[in-house]
Amino acid sequence: MIRTIGTGFALVAATAFAVGASSAGANEAQTGQAAKSITCTVKLSKQRDPSATRTGIDFAQITCSKPFGFGAQYDEFKLFPKGNPPSGTGFMNYKAYFDGGRVNGRWEVSFAATTKPCDFNFKVKSTWNGGTGKFKNVKGSGSGAGDFTDLKNAPACAKATVKYKMQVTGI
Fold it and tell me: Is pLDDT above 70 for 154?
């Protein structure tokens, strides 16, 4: 069952997270290239809540370390909450558009809400798997944890910021 948390919940992380050495080694082994550590900040704005029959949609501004820079992101997401307050899992498939190309990505998320509106603690796993232009061979992965608290926008919970670190190759 898919349902909306509050009146909407964009998949969000409010803190930067560290990347495990094993993911860097895996990327290096696949490409023969040393992995580069990058950081990204994503400012999400939810456009549509997910439901049982359709995905939710976000648009976002994304800013990453060189060579990516500033861009725009589009994603579709699903959430699978249980209980009250809700906890559960979800995923987001996204495309991040930068000068010189696009990156295809996915977030896997597990979350737990507090009793406050729009307050969530969660863990995220992030992967990049190819794209277009100069990023067509990009591969990357990272993971971490975050806390989303946006009481100012309650109950809409429509805007959030994500910061993350990844190890990437193919750039």
Answer: no
